[in-house]
Amino acid sequence: MKHSIQTFLRRSTLAFRCLAIAAVVSIATISSAQPTLFGFNDSTSAQQRQMETQFDTLIDRAEMDRWLREFSSQAHHVGSPKSKENAEAIAALLRSWNYDVEIAEYEVLFPEPLTRELELVAPTRFTASLMEDPIDGDASTSNTDNLLPSYNAFSTDGEVEAELVFVNYGTPADYELLERYGVSVAGKIAISKYGGSWRGIKPKLAGEMGAIGTLIYSDPADDGYGPGDVYPEGPYKNDSGVQRGSVMDMPTYPGDVLTPGVGATGDVNRLSREEAPTITQIPVLPISYRDALPLLEAMGGAVVPKEWRGGLPITYHLGPGPARVRLKLEFDWKMVTAYNVIARLEGTSMPDQWIIRGNHHDGWNHGAADPLSGIVAMLAEAKAVSRLAESGYPPARTIIYAAWDAEEPGLIGSTEWAEHHAAELQEHAVAYLNTDGNGRGFVNVGGSHVLERFFNEIMSDVEDPQTGVSVQQRRRANLRINGGSEKIRNEAKNRSDLRISPLGSGSDYTPFLQHLGIASANMGFGGHSGGGSYHTMYDTYEHYSKWIDPGLIYGRTLAQFAGRATLRLANAPRLPFDFQGFTDNVSGYIEEIETLADDMREKTATDNLDIDSGVYGLVLDPTKTFGPPIPKPAVPHFNFAPLKNALARLEDSAAAYQNLAMTGAAASANQNYLLYTSERELIREEGLTGRPWYKHHIYAPGFYTGYGVKTIPGVREAIEQRQYNQVAGQIDIAAEVLTNLAVRLDELVER
Amino acid sequence: MKHSIQTFLRRSTLAFRCLAIAAVVSIATISSAQPTLFGFNDSTSAQQRQMETQFDTLIDRAEMDRWLREFSSQAHHVGSPKSKENAEAIAALLRSWNYDVEIAEYEVLFPEPLTRELELVAPTRFTASLMEDPIDGDASTSNTDNLLPSYNAFSTDGEVEAELVFVNYGTPADYELLERYGVSVAGKIAISKYGGSWRGIKPKLAGEMGAIGTLIYSDPADDGYGPGDVYPEGPYKNDSGVQRGSVMDMPTYPGDVLTPGVGATGDVNRLSREEAPTITQIPVLPISYRDALPLLEAMGGAVVPKEWRGGLPITYHLGPGPARVRLKLEFDWKMVTAYNVIARLEGTSMPDQWIIRGNHHDGWNHGAADPLSGIVAMLAEAKAVSRLAESGYPPARTIIYAAWDAEEPGLIGSTEWAEHHAAELQEHAVAYLNTDGNGRGFVNVGGSHVLERFFNEIMSDVEDPQTGVSVQQRRRANLRINGGSEKIRNEAKNRSDLRISPLGSGSDYTPFLQHLGIASANMGFGGHSGGGSYHTMYDTYEHYSKWIDPGLIYGRTLAQFAGRATLRLANAPRLPFDFQGFTDNVSGYIEEIETLADDMREKTATDNLDIDSGVYGLVLDPTKTFGPPIPKPAVPHFNFAPLKNALARLEDSAAAYQNLAMTGAAASANQNYLLYTSERELIREEGLTGRPWYKHHIYAPGFYTGYGVKTIPGVREAIEQRQYNQVAGQIDIAAEVLTNLAVRLDELVER
User: Fold this and answer.
1) From the list B17, B309, B478, which residue is nearest A226 (CB)?
2) Closest Cα of chain A to B226: distance in Å?
3) What is the pLDDT of residues B501-532, one digit of tens each?
4) For A225, which of B14, B314, B467 is closest by C-beta distance?
5) Which H or E run includes A331?
6) 3-state secondary structure B603-620
7) Terminal C-alpha separation, chain A
8) pTM for the full model?
9) Which residue ranges form the domains of chain B, and what is each CATH number?
10) pLDDT by residue (tens digit) across B28-60?
């Protein structure tokens, strides 16, 4: 039986394979049992599900496809005519569906390049073209009206000339290795691969290390012909493609660089540009691998370590030089208007409790994948929600759809709106639900862990369009086979709920979650939609429709998924926040941090011993410049007890609340208020050390990773950055926020 | 203190660094305490050491350098005029040092190419040049007299035309993955990278899978511009370089393909060429990455998995086709004479006990690194040994120096001599000590585990020329930092003796160890002498002297190292065989094999479950051809008790023998005989299943790895190849040889 099915699966055509898969999966397809939804009782749950069935029939892929084609017909970055046009078109659609729509405008700083010059001046000469090639068969790539050339927004102006140093991905670990080679970037221009960290980290760290400029290129091993055929033969990055993107110091604060913490309305006090701490210290320019090749080829010095090699047909060298480049960048530091479309559908019974659902509308270019594939799903959802309201299913809570402008340069539209409306949002916002560019494959959900259980219900209820099983089951299967650790693979088999990822940064949830303490989530599909169009001129309708999600079948699934999230939060008599899922995850983070400290302690001790005893001196090749590791101060033992005691208390409170919630009793308005504002207990007005804008003490983007999340960031980053004397204080702070949440839950139970 | 030394080390010049290293290593430099050598008593040990001090002064690097230059002045493969000339020159030197020298001749089959044609015939046309470029500044590369073009010896003749299939390294695991893509090589031509297994495995497996031809190329990611600058800018393989080499089925038997098991003397019965099972079934040709590029670039089909990607600036595809090639190979199947130089220095007190010390003299080309860097060290050693004999230190046992011919095409010279003299060797040979091409860096010793302790004494006594510490201490430091597993790193810190590697194949020890059961070892230095000259036209004096071991400083160290091994074995009153080191290693192998079975059992069960339940169907991209793994039969539990009981008994016997040996009493002639013939207890006349030439049941080259060793091969390969019904029988056989060795040790103790 095993072999015959197997043989059949392998030999059959693709169409047959899909059928065969459905046949052998015993637990396949969406359960017809339909358990009672968390936060509902049997009757309200059945009614909610009935509405969702109707909701699904209202999602129209053909209409989504028309919107996608129309909105992506031209470049539509913030400040461009098309961005305003799209905002108005989106507003008109939402108005036509009876939403109460406003366009919220903010005046923000947005640099556009005036001068971009990059030349190799020694030992040979080469002038980088800095141009992307139009593609036959992709008409959009010939429509360059208002298209921004390749650049990194919020690079400072400057003209520099110096030798190149190759810094791999430009992460802290890379600089540590570079130091072992005796190579410094001080006074040099760093050339870094894209990847390994968020792009903004590269000029930030290079600048801290003394570099006077940074180039970032997409290495073909990571993002080019290595992973697959290049556009137009395949979806991957061709040799002229350049990833644009912001390099503002978002881990310090996102949003308009001149107005940290306040909405960039017309009359607000603004920093001068010189004062703005999130503009880079040194000029930085992204380039294609075609432009990078002559530069890298002209480099000398030590050969890079094996892990640093890329996919160009050369030996990679660290430098410095002899390749010497001149880089000149000048920007038009314009004030532009960001147009956020805000559409409101008033709740019937709990209008003061708001569900906010957003996706940005601005792109770096034609932006078919990023962000329009997400926004067309959100629009389909918004239309269906309004139709349901008209047909007798109005939402109990208020739903607000937001189409953000200026996300690309640094989450500017959403951040300014969130800062502008901070007080009312902290009072009224139940949750913020985000989407962005969408792909094909497995569901990805990141978010506040109190929503883990909520999203697992949705994952179980939405069908994967390629296999017919639930998207949860498909994700579970993927983690079971491809999960990155044994723990993950085992949990995929045995844990009843799949974990949702903690959120770092990279899209518009950041101001809601990490600045305001609003429970947030980010949803999307991916894993089978490889490609290299991201932030290049090739992110077109043609590329998206051919290579990423042909027919928008996952666009429809995203609308179904996010629509359920919106509608269930809007209607649940008791808000479906689960604190046991939260404590289970936090418990894991504390274990991780303890292990991190133990591993660092052991590694540091071993390394220092091996360095002191001269072992490295015996191992390294004396004819090479590569030296021993740099000794580091020993890692002390830390007292994690306060944090673990606070967690233990919270676990008790969470269990007690769970007993209450499981009675199925509807929550009072006040109980619901106490529930959704419980996430506010996890933020502190003081914020994180050195970056007070970030106030959440469970989730933050890493100060040296950018988008990558750091959970319990105060404690974790103090240890990672070897600021040992700060650890105890940060443990106390983390314990305090957990205790505050426990007190809140006790209050809920007592009422 | 830590930091200041560190800073000093990093900032100082190289010359300073070496001094600094010596200064901080507290346990550095060779101990002056000079413990009594194993197998000697205090007095004979002191005398031996005194002799060795004198020995060191006799090693002359300048003379070695002259020999190296002279012997490598022209290509000198078996059958070439220069090979005969070198043999005669070596014989003349040894005769001049008063050795009793003969040139032992064997008549062996050796194919030389007549026709080598490789063309891409579709979808475009390209004719491979199959030529290596001469290099300005390396005069040897312009001296192509008698130079063999690039080819694989013992490829069959043939002309084939078919589509290409990319098979990565052409290992069993690669074909398993290829099957998941639905790609078969049947009727196709396989194109494989060099590496991952011994080259002869590639056409062997491709042929078993139905391919009609094989191309092997050196991918620049592994062996070209990836690891470093290419020749002549650096030591690495340039785009025209081709690795020659034998592809005879050495894991079945090495040596002359027509005379398995017997010496290829003039009158012996020979197989016909058609009968010879070790000639490949399909034609195979090695090519450069310059010639491979147009072929690979023209391929289509699925994109290769990430781990299979190489370093060419293309997307790698699996095929089959559309690239279609025509390959035509014709060979002159010549009978040539192999000239082994055999030089004998009669022992004074135990002339019937022979220490055999060998290194081959034939090369694929100029052969400076391979093999001449080894042979000049052996000659320096032989000269010094003869000078010592003249000055009052004649060896107690007979020493035989052997310079083998025809190693490159398949260990032919050594194998024929060993087969020819099998009976007397089994009676008289104490040990076989091998060297081959030498490099720079760390000492590497592989060999019979009874010699582990012996070699650790030598490692402790020989000084590393770059750091001034013992070569053992330097190797220990390297394992401590770079050891491939935690076990290895911990043992480097804590185990008193460093392990010596078990021997697979790849040089002339194989017939002695694995066919005749003579304790053997292979010695050399490496780790800091990267490069790509191996078996190319660029293995010249110029390349070697510039990039591998300038000044032959490690050539001298090798002579010191191997010379000590020869002299100590020749003089030890009790042969320094240690059986506790042997049992400790064998115990580890048994554990490894049990873990292997357990891991295979668990993995097979998990995979089969995931396949049967359809999980893979949910994970894989339905738009791609990549399918689930192939289900495999469940792995049963095996009874390892007989093997472990035999080992336990052997451990007792080894401990008892150790007690005897540690008394310091000299051994009788008969005790020494029983000692050195103990290795014969580990072979069985029947040999391994399917390859009776290989008779050793502890060490064998892997049937599907080629050079890579398989310890306790009968048991291990039966499990690996999932021949479960053979495992119990193989466990019994392995138990039997261990028991036989225990009986032998008991006999030694009782006498």
Assistant:
1) B309
2) 5
3) 999 999 999 999 999 999 999 999 999 988 89
4) B314
5) strand A324-345
6) HHHHHHHHHHCCHHHHHC
7) 59
8) 0.94
9) 29-106+336-571 (3.40.630.10), 109-333 (3.50.30.30), 579-750 (1.20.930.40)
10) 445 556 899 999 999 999 999 999 999 999 999
